[in-house]
Amino acid sequence: MKLTANTIPAFLLLAGFASALTVRQDSTSHLLQPRRTKSLLISPAAQPALPTIQEATAAAAAAGLNLDNIQGDILIGMKKNQELFYFFSIADAAAFKPKLASDILPLITTTTQLLQVSTQPTTMLNIAFSATGLSALGITDSLGDADFAGGQFAALTALGDPGSTNWVPQFAGTNIHGVMLFASDTVANIDAAVASVESALGSSITKLYTLAGAVRPGSEAGHEPFGFLDGISNPAVEGFIATPLPGQAPVAAGTILLGESGDTGTRPAWAQDGSFLAFRQLSQLVPEFNKFLTDNPIVMDGLTPQQGSDLLGARMMGRWKSGAPVDLSPVFDDPVLGADPTRNNNFTFEHDGVNLATNQTFCPFAAHIRKTRPRADLGTPEDAIHHIIRAGIPYGPEVSDQEAASNTTTTERGLAFVAYQSNLANGFQFLQQIWANKPNFVHTGEGYDPIVGADAGAPRVVTGLDPTNSTKSLTLPIDFIVSRGGEYFFAPSLSAINTTLSV
Q1: What does R_g of the chain's alpha carbons equal in angstroms?
Q2: Which of 230, 340, 466, 479 is catalytic?
Q3: CA-based, 20 to 30 A from 11: which of 397, 424, 447, 496?
Q4: Residues 139, 143, 145, 147: what is their CA dihedral angle, to the nearest 10 degrees?
Q5: DSSP characters for 76-145?
Q6: Which burial class, exposed, middle or buried, applies to 358 when counting CB atoms under 10 A from its CB (0-12, 13-18, 19+)?
Q7: In angstroms, rounded to a whole number, what is the distance separating the alpha carbons of residues 360 and 187?
Q8: Angstrom distance (rounded) from CA 186 to CA 178
Q9: In a 10 Å sphere around its CB, with 0-12 CB exposed, 13-18 middle and 19+ buried, how is residue 420 labelled?
């Protein structure tokens, strides 16, 4: 993304910061002046809708949750329109810390602000710090998470990466101290916000790397680069969503937020209402994936080769591109079902008269959505500790005609993967290492997750993808999703920034 050269004059910038802080501290919401007439977020019909401000306020009050203290991206999910991830190191902590309080804190967008268009900023800003970043700020407290303390680079073998060969160089190591998340409905808005923040922070930080993401165009809005509708199965967090949709997993606030009910870790008091942010840049080989589907169609009576290829892709994912689950629509896509949030997540993999432990007619055991949320496979009621809030966004251009014709990726595209949780070992790292990458989870011999499962770049074997022969195996010759690395961050509450990180 190109950054604009123009910056806002310093006196106007500081006046804006002061004004924003005054508005936030004033509890009389009627004094808020409308800042937008159009939301900076997208809202695909098939994804769980955000609660209204009235619903969220009531839920938060009942649970004792302070939505004004929680950074907005954590509970919002995959609803950004345009987003820039700005990775930085702290060059001068003594200069950065007061600027964090005076210049950045007033601009940080809270959960409450994002729930109404009238209180949304022109550009959302959130910030998070790596373990080395907290150390650079002089924070010596343990946050009670060994994976966060070690950083993602130390976990690359456990995550199935073939070393750091494919990693963006800036991620290889522990040099990244933090990430700022800028989100809006236009690139121009983000560019202006980045320029303003860079001007304010000056030489106290060093920009190391940026990655720009954007919702896909037209009818593909909300779909990831392979074409599948995304973000359907985010959980309902207590204190934010009072009434979960059918099939939506209710989770305690402490599953996502440190120091809240359900968080079993030992945390310093100032860490309350923060969350661990797992970031991964996942390159997706879309032409190669499509070629694999074309070459390996499922052969069934009544299916054309194209329908057979579409069915294979749907069974690999566990959903059709519309979002309809194969567990409810096992042979053909059902776009009406896919677009209905009251039905598209309402299943457990159980069916009357069908043996859950052996039958793969409806949904393969290895399907991505089943590997990462086994539902009834692990018994009911469902264990809620392994849920995460997914808040990523696609990056890179659409597939070109030349790439499609040659079945070869020449320009990188993929998903800027973001997951929030209070415990990385129970959250993202568990889902990737223990579930997606284990060929014998939950059922012996099912193979790897065919979408995100990884074995250090080696070919992966999957069974159960052919509904006519559940013992038939299929070898995935390459990883269609290639890890480009990432880092683990802590997204602190606003009070933590004010009382601990900036002093």
Answers
A1: 22
A2: 230
A3: 496
A4: -20
A5: H-S-BSEEEEEEEEES-HHHHHHHIIIIIGGGPPBHHHHTSGGG--SSEEEEEE-HHHHHHTT-----S-
A6: exposed
A7: 45
A8: 24
A9: buried
For residue 462, is it left (φ>0), alpha (ψ between -120 and 50) or beta? Answer: beta
Of how many residues is the chain composed? 503
Which residues are within 8 A (CB) of 33 and not within 5 positions of it... i.e. 6 or more apart?
Answer: none
Query: CB-based contacts of 353: which residues, under 8 Å, 6+ apart?
Result: none
Tokens coding 247: 């099939």
Q: Which two tokens stand for residue 491?
A: 């997204």
Instruction: Tell me what pLDDT residue 21 has.
Output: 36
pLDDT single digits (tens) 241-291? 999 999 999 999 999 999 999 999 999 999 999 999 999 999 999 999 999
What are the backbone angles phi and psi of residue 52, rounded to the nearest 5°? -70, 165
Task: Check if 230 is active-site.
Answer: yes
Tokens of 390: 């997914």
C-beta of residue 263 within 8 angstroms of C-beta of residue 257: yes
Which has the closest alpha carbon to 482: 503, 455, 448? 455
Q: Which of 230, 234, 260 is nearest to 245 (CA)?
A: 234
Are 261 and 63 contacting, i.e. CB atoms less than 8 angstroms apart? yes
Question: What residue spans define the domains of the chain?
Answer: 285-382+425-486
- Please list, in sequence order, all residues whose beta carbon lies within 8 angstroms of the beta carbon of residue 253, skipping any fewer than 6 positions away: 63, 65, 237, 238, 239, 240, 260, 261, 262, 263
Q: Which amino acid makes up residue 444?
A: T
Q: Tokens 């702290």 belong to which residue?
A: 90
- 164 closest CA partner among 249, 83, 281, 82: 281
* β-pairing verdict for 250-251 and 236-237: parallel
The token duo for 263 is 């968080």
